[in-house]
Amino acid sequence: MKKLLLVGLRSCAHCLRVVAFLNTEDEKQKVEVGLDPWEGRELARIYHRQKDATSLTELLRHLLDVCGYVPRMVIFDCGEDEVLVARLLVDKDGEIQTRFCSPSLGLRLSVAAGALVYATDELFVRRQLLFHTPFFEDGSTDLLEAKPRGI
């Protein structure tokens, strides 16, 4: 497994989806996670530590806290049907439990909770099957500052 860092968030000029860019620590490999525009704005607010009482991610994080679940790690991997999946590892009374979720939700929860993000080696082997290659024209919107940030 390789640790990932969130390094950027931009809008694709073709499909208008927001794409979150995560690089390995050595910056040799990357993972792109597609988000709808609302999820992209929410991730940008969470990244910049802007509290938003209406955020679904903040509500889910609060519910996890109330139930005694602490998000520890998100692992991106290949699903059985060749799609990008996320495994959220949560700590419940000292026991680590795994929950599957969408990559976008896993990424948003990891940023909100300060959990680490990893990708399996298998993911990089199959990356050509999984990732949308975003197209950027001049003037595309950057939603995050261009600075690497550990999650």
Overall pLDDT level: 80
Helix content: 25-40%
Can you write the helix and strand succession as a string?
Answer: EEEHHEEEHEHHE
Q: Label the CATH architecture.
A: Roll
Number of helices: 5
Give me the Rg, rounded: 15 Å
Q: How is the biggest beta sheet arranged?
A: 8 strands, mixed
The assigned structural class equals alpha+beta
Number of strands: 8
What's the structural domain tally? 1
CATH-assigned homologous superfamily = Bifunctional nuclease domain
Low-confidence stretches: 138-151
In CATH terms, what is the fold-level topology? Answer: Bifunctional nuclease domain
Note the overall shape.
globular
* CATH C-level label: Alpha Beta
Q: Kindly report how far apart the N and C termini lie.
A: 15 Å
Estimate what percentage of residues fall within beta strands: 35-45%
Structure description:
- The chain has 151 residues and is an alpha+beta fold.
- Strand 1 and strand 2 (18-24) form a beta hairpin.
- 27% of the residues are buried.
- The chain is globular and about 40 Å long.
- It contains five helices and eight strands.
- The chain has helices at 37-47, 56-66, 103-113, 121-125, 127-130, and strands at residues 2-11, 18-24, 30-35, 69-78, 84-92, 95-101, 116-119, 149-150.
- Strands 1, 2, 3, 4, 5, 6, 7 and 8 form an eight-stranded mixed sheet that branches.
- It has a single domain (2-138), classed as Bifunctional nuclease domain, CATH 3.10.690.10.
- Helices cover 28% and strands 36% of the residues.
- Helix 1 runs parallel beside helix 3 and helix 2 packs across helix 3.
- Mean pLDDT is 80; it is low at 138-151.
